[in-house]
Every structure is written in C-alpha cells, then in structure tokens.
Specification:
Protein-Tyrosine Phosphatase, Chain A, five-stranded mixed sheet, about 10% strand, alpha/beta, 10 helices, single chain
C-alpha cells in the first residue's frame, strides 16, 4: 500500500473492487479517463451503465430524498443528468458508498463531477457487512471536512446511502442514533431489515444495547467499543428476504 496522503480517509476493501486505492480520498488511482477516450469506449460505458448496472431502472426512479434541508441529499446511482441537477441545486460534494469501479456509471460520474466542479469522494463499504473499524472511526473527520451541501449515494439508494445518512445525522447533527437509523434505513427506500442488509441496522442495535448498559455516547462507542465481528455474529437474516434483496432487486 502506498504512503497515506494527507487528509485521506480509509476506505473499506470488499471483493467488489480490488483496484481501488483504499487510501485515496477520491480514488484517483483508478484510471477513468481512458475508458472514455474514444466514441466506441464511451458508448460501451454508457451501455454498461444503462443495462448491466441497471441504469434503465433509475431513469424515473431516483430514490432521492432530502435528509437535511438545503444541506444533505441521498439517492441511488446518479446519472449525468442527475449530477447536473445536483449542481443546479448548489450541491458541492458527491459521496459514493459503492465499492466498485468496474461499471459504466463510474467513469461517467467522475467526468461529470469534474466538469460540474463537484467534489467526488468515496466512503465505500458493503451493504451486507458492518463497516470495518477504521472506516467508522474515520467518519467524524470525513463529515467535518467535506463541502456542503452533499449528495450521498450508492447503487440502489436503499442500504448504504441510508446508512451513511443515518451515520451523518447521528455524528454531525446530534440526532438520536436509533431514530436516525429508523428514518434512513427504511422500507420506503427499498431497504430490508430482514435480509443481510439488516446488518447495517444491527450496528445501531448494538450501540443501543451498549448505551443502555453504560450510557456511552455514540462517537465514543465508535472510537472505543465498535466491534463489527460481534455485530455480524449476532445477526441472522431471513433467507427469503435475503434472496429477494440479493438476487431479484440487485442490491450490491
């Protein structure tokens, strides 16, 4: 691993994206410009984004919501037009929770953000495992240093965008953590607490148990007592719910 650059945020590696520079604040080492260098390559990325990455389902369904008025938005994977909309709203930073780079939406998003003057940041984790310790401990500083207004997104906008929004509300806005989770990790966004994606809800469940026992604050718990292995071991998904979330709806 390369030397850690100043201001970098640790990004959790997952099986989906072995090529990401895990210490890069914007995954700059993932070369995206050559993927758009010719009309044929650009067309391939557009086709990949529309069909293989399920962009066709996001033409009319944005899964977009305002988390904090005039400050924080959440959505599914934005198209170029969606990013133009975001820039027109005054949004300054786009944060992706997606781990991969090998899908067409990635270079198109990077190009659009560069053209529109939007900061592109990565805070990547799996929707089916608790984020690792280093990533969670980096979250307070991450939320402090990004420019606002901000758009959080993942692929479907159901799970990771919701978790990131709840984490932001609990750490940066002082919202009671369980309330933040119930609002943002919600069925109305397509999130299932019964599937493996419920692992993200279980992070907040474990915190509530710790708070009930010791009175510990959320930030302190993340810094000193957060245990993703214990959270994962304590959660059992419902098989049918997970089959639906994983295979039929295409959640990452």
């Amino acid at each position: 691993m390369s030397e850690i650059p100043e201001g970098a945020v640790l990004i959790q590696p997952t099986p989906f994206a072995p090529l990401i520079d895990w210490w890069g604040t914007t995954a700059e080492n993932a070369e995206w410009k050559p993927r758009l260098a010719t009309p044929a390559k650009r067309a391939r990325e557009h086709l990949n984004a529309f069909f293989l990455d399920h962009g066709f389902a996001r033409v009319f369904w944005k899964n977009r919501a305002e988390v904090v008025p005039n400050k924080v938005w959440r959505s599914n994977q934005p198209s170029v037009r969606d990013l133009e909309w975001a820039a027109a709203q005054g949004i300054k930073t786009v944060v992706t929770a997606r781990s991969g780079i090998n899908f067409g939406a990635y270079p198109l998003e990077r190009e659009a953000c560069e053209r529109l003057g939007l900061d592109f940041r990565v805070f990547a984790f799996s929707s089916r495992q608790p984020p690792d310790v280093a990533l969670m401990q980096a979250a307070p500083a991450f939320f402090e240093e990004i420019r606002y207004p901000v758009l959080f997104h993942c692929k479907s906008g159901a799970d990771r965008a919701g978790f990131l929004s709840a984490l932001y509300l609990a750490l940066h806005e002082g919202v009671e953590p369980r309330k933040a989770a119930e609002e943002q990790l919600n069925w109305r966004f397509g999130h299932s607490r019964a599937a493996k994606t419920g692992m993200l809800d279980h992070v907040f469940v474990h915190y509530e148990r710790a708070r009930a026992a010791t009175g510990i604050g959320f930030g302190e718990w993340l810094a000193t007592a957060y245990d993703p292995a214990a959270i994962a071991a304590d959660f059992t998904p419902a098989p049918l719910a997970d089959l639906f979330a994983s295979r039929w709806t295409g959640h990452e």
